[in-house]
């Protein structure tokens, strides 16, 4: 498996070595093997992150009207994205008639495949119309544990493996020992090495007001939270930590485009932008948050 190496500006830091799954989908070396690799950050996830950033954040649990602007943007994005996938499916109009016209043997052969495709499309519809809104309701419902927003710290660190002594590593590389974290010290459900990140690695770690510490893992041209909620609920497009990150970026300096999509470093070492990029530039260039007309 080839890796891509990014050299940090700070010469004391190790290079950031990333697997093919961390690249943009349009990159010739991009590869995501369904079932073996962690799931891709779907385009809808990047778009929802953008929607929240552009709307100015989404950290309170609003159950009553008016619907928060971010949720209005997201609703439109969900509808549009589901519609855009229509082209990947054959038309099922009059499917029963259509199959009835074929010779019995052919109908018997084809029908299970059509039904399976119908089910895939129904599952996709359920994801966009039910599961994603429920996911967002859930994390908004727990957002209080992340307030105040500035109490969530983004820490630039070097993650080392179990065989590396952080004190020795810090001494050898002239770094502060507080900025060296053993992989096992993280609360991550999935560790950086399981995402194909070669250790030692300069990564961004979120130290959250809720008490947990999770590394953000470079993947699909952005980063994904390593917490149990995000990593075990494959249908979840966002966890509360990513919500905190999006809300933090929503409050970034407006004139600075990078500051909108790249997570800041509050403390610690100056890790590469690639380990902090929260939205794929490709998606940022092609998605405009909009309300339903
Ligand atoms: Zn999380």
TrEMBL record:
Residues 1-41 are annotated as: Disordered. This is SWIM-type domain-containing protein. It comes from Halobellus clavatus.
